[in-house]
Design goal:
Layout lengths: L29 H12 L4 H14 L5 H13 L5 H9 L6 H13 L3 H13 L8 H11 L3 H14 L5 H13 L3 H9 L6 H13 L3 H15 L5 H14 L2 H14 L5 H13 L3 H10 L7 H13 L3 H13 L6 H14 L2 H13 L7 H13 L3 H10 L6 H14 L2 H13 L5 H13 L3 H13 L8 E6 L2 E6 L8 H17 L12 H5 L2 H12 L6 E5 L5 H13 L4 E4 L4 E5 L2 E2 L6
Parallel strand pairs: 3-4
Antiparallel strand pairs: 1-2, 1-3, 4-5, 5-6
Helix pairs in contact: 1-3, 3-4, 3-5, 4-5, 5-6, 5-7, 6-7, 7-8, 7-9, 8-9, 9-10, 9-11, 10-11, 11-12, 11-13, 12-13, 13-14, 13-15, 15-16, 15-17, 16-17, 17-18, 17-19, 18-19, 19-20, 19-21, 20-21, 21-22, 21-23, 22-23, 23-24, 23-25, 24-25, 25-26, 27-29
Amino acid sequence: MIRTSVLHQNHLLVPQEDPPQTALQPSFKSGEKECYLSFLKKCRNMKEFKQAHAHILKLGLLLDPFCASNLLSTCALSDWGSMDYARSMFDEMPEPGSFQFNTLIRGHLKDTNMEEALLTYIEMVERGVKPDNFTYPSLLKACARLPALAEGMQAHGHVFKLGFHDDIFVQNSLVSMYGKCGEIGLSCAVFEQMNERNVASWSAIIAAHSSLGMWNDCLRLLGDMNREKNWKAEESILVSVLSACTHLGVLDLGRSVHGFLLRNMTGLNVIVETSLLEMYMKCGNVDKGMHIFQNMAKEKKNKMSYSVMISGLAMHGYGRESLRVFGEMIQQGLEPDDVVYVGVLTACSHAGLVREGLQCFDRMKLEQRIEPTIQHYGCMVDLLGRAGKINEALELVKAMPMEPNDVVWRSLLSASNAHGDLETGEVAGRRLFELNSHKSSDYVVLSNMYARAGRWTDMARTRTEMHSKGLNQRPGSCSVEVKRKMHRFVSQDAGHPQNKSIYEMMYQMEWQLKFEGYAPEIDEEEKKQRLKGHSQKIAIAFALINTSAGCSIRIVRNLRMCNDCHTYTKLISMIFDREITVRDRNRFHHFKDGVCSCRDYW
């Protein structure tokens, strides 16, 4: 058969109903087979295996299908095995059956050679060997990993023709395959049609939603699973749920999952521990994240663990601690990659460590021989811009070996706005508009800069251009976690059942703030009344009403925090003696006793 890429095959052939009959094979005594199997089990590398193969050839045991099949599976599926050698043995078999073909498909999966796995299935069909229910889970896994949706759908058709559509293992594989190929509707359709489900079924459908970032659905499905049969969630489900908690900022549920793992698992592997680490760091509990990282065995910490820790500390503004962890990673002999350096440079940017950031950037290029990507240049522009080095940031943008994208120009615009450099802000704004920016915030920032400079004509022109493109300001929203539920508020929100109590609390907060000398920081374009209704202030008021004195408040924002909300929250943390953690679009802010962890550098 000519072995071309499976992704260019026009179709998969329909399997024949009956495979050809094999001739009678000579039988061997059970003692000989046991001796042979014991010999195979002792093999630890290909050299020993080839010696065993030669010995078995001399004994003539290859004529026995059982012995030949075990020899093939040992070579194909062992960690030390060779698929080339396994294929050469397979080609010597006169009439291989479904077991032998399934073994080759599984072996190619093990070696992450997905196209070869699909080509082996095509060969199986062409040679008239009837696939069985063990064929399709491996085949569908190959389709999922490529991904190869068209071939997966054809395999689904074969499943129906051969009558395996009610096999639970095949159904689970179909749910997983469609999910990983981005067809969540088909994944759900297969799941809903299942007459019987097991834990693996729920794991597949939850993972399918997780892979597409459908985090709320992941948590909904976890609840459905518990209500259906009170299933005991397995490790893979809990990793998906932890990812959902991480992205939604649902710390309490994440803690519950952690508790379940500790009660039911004797030892956590590095994937689970890294998922827990990421969940705590991205949900705002730095201390717990640090505790998990410090208690991980040194030999278990890998590049991913260090990358999550470095990026997590960067999000919280702990730049020096992030650099310390980076140094520990180097000492452990782990080679940092481009992703790790993005975390390191972000940490320097958020903490104002300009000298250290420049050193890390040079080290990445000169010592690690890593070619900077646009993400690295974006971090450097942000680093210089935040520190007020606007001219240096602009020069770096001009010297970039690739065309700057909207993220780079937006960082420069934001820095120009923060440091009052209208000239550079105009340059960044014009380049953003040339790139057909569809973010209204770019137009709003530049128009506000014009307003502060008294250039009303330019301000009006910028606002008109924004409206002519049909762009509207994205409404600010905040979610606050209270009693394991996330409550979402938008600016000027008046639709909550506790609306009256919330605004009464806000009035009380405003009254107490006046005694601390608070006055709203009002842009020329904003009204004082509008500032009072910012979603973050509404969320804080709701949390103060519905939580006990001294309880921490955790808020997730969809936009960057404004200066007024930052000042407001610092004072509220002092007046009401609360720790308030706010996760905005870029980073975390931890407010306590009237002080923010960012030290007003953000």
